[in-house]
Amino acid sequence: MPACVASNRYNIGSVIEFDPQLSPVQLSLPLYTAPVDRRVRIYRENAWPEGAPSPDVMRTRATRLLRRADAGLPATARSLSRLVVTANRIPSVTLSRPDDRVYTARVHWTIVDDPEFTALFTRALSGGGFMRTRIRELLDRASQRIGPLGIYDAAATKSSHEPRHIDLEAVYQSALTHLPQPDRGRGLKVTWGRKAIRKGGSLRLGSLRNTTGEIRLHPVLDDATIPPFVVEYVMYHEICHWVAPPLTESEARRNGEHRVHHRAFRALEALYPKAGVAQAWIDKYIDTLLRRAVA
To answer: Does residue 6 lie within any of the structural domains?
Structure first.
């Protein structure tokens, strides 16, 4: 997923860059019988929800999506190495880029066979951007129509962390005061994430789901030995992602900027009074936090 920060050991935060949760597919559509594309994966197939089309059906539909997208891509487009179909509680699409020309996509099952999503997906791979307002409307529609049998078992994905030291809402409200226009950061949901580390042994301290306005902090930060300004800095960093969202591919290329941590974002982040001290603390103790996270 799109991600963030200066160290290759961890991420302060991560932005899910776009989550087109479009209207659910029609289950009566005829089955596509071509061979399944080897790039397709079904995430948590052994726990696939009974209310969603079977993994075999979804592999076929994902293959159709890839073929349609491939047909509409120019020769200069970035390629897709893997398409992972999911059944998360909040329908989403994430597009990550391990290197400059290859993408990995994660797509919720409800939108895999949606023609409008196919067009947006092809546009993204071609380097074009999405219209945020349009995407959010599509995401809202999908969220409202998915029943409990169409998602993974909520008990298996929900954070089990019980707060001990940190009041996240208080941290959030305090972080808002450092914005030039605090109202632009209001209305977000803040919660603890799962006790997990990323592949490769890195630690994501915070994340923002841009389409739903949900900020999650890693439970490892709920510790009395961590300076309060460090936790608030991580929270502020995620709020900045909301106020200064990622650029489109074309905007980033035109301006010669990082798509996620662009100049406007960095300028906003620098307004946090203890940004430098907090970052230095994280750099110094990230290995300690990582050991705690896996303990």
So the answer is: no
Domain range for residue 141? 17-155
221 contacts 10 by C-beta, under 8 angstroms: no
10 Å CB burial of residue 234 (0-12, 13-18, 19+) is buried
Q: Which residues contact 35 (CB under 8 A, 6 or more apart)?
A: 63
Helix, strand, or coil (residue 26): coil
Q: Which residues pair with 91 in a beta bridge?
A: none
Longest Cα–Cα distance in the chain:
59
Domain boundary at 114, 133, 155, which? Answer: 155
CA 80 to chain centre: 18
Question: Do 84 and 108 meet the contact criterion of CB atoms below 8 Å apart?
Answer: no
Where is 251: in which H helix or E strand? helix 249-255
Report the helix count and the strand count for the chain, using DSSP H and E. 9, 10
- pLDDT tens digits, 167-201: 999 999 999 999 999 999 999 989 998 877 766 67
Show the tokens assigned to 230.
């460090």
Closest by Cα among 120, 159, 155 to 139 = 120
Interatomic CA distance for residues 81 and 70, integer angstroms:
12
Using only C-alpha atoms, the chain has a radius of gyration, in whole angstroms, of 20
- Over residues 122-165, the pLDDT tens digits come to 888 877 766 666 666 776 777 766 777 777 764 444 566 788 89
Same domain, residue pair 268 and 283 = yes
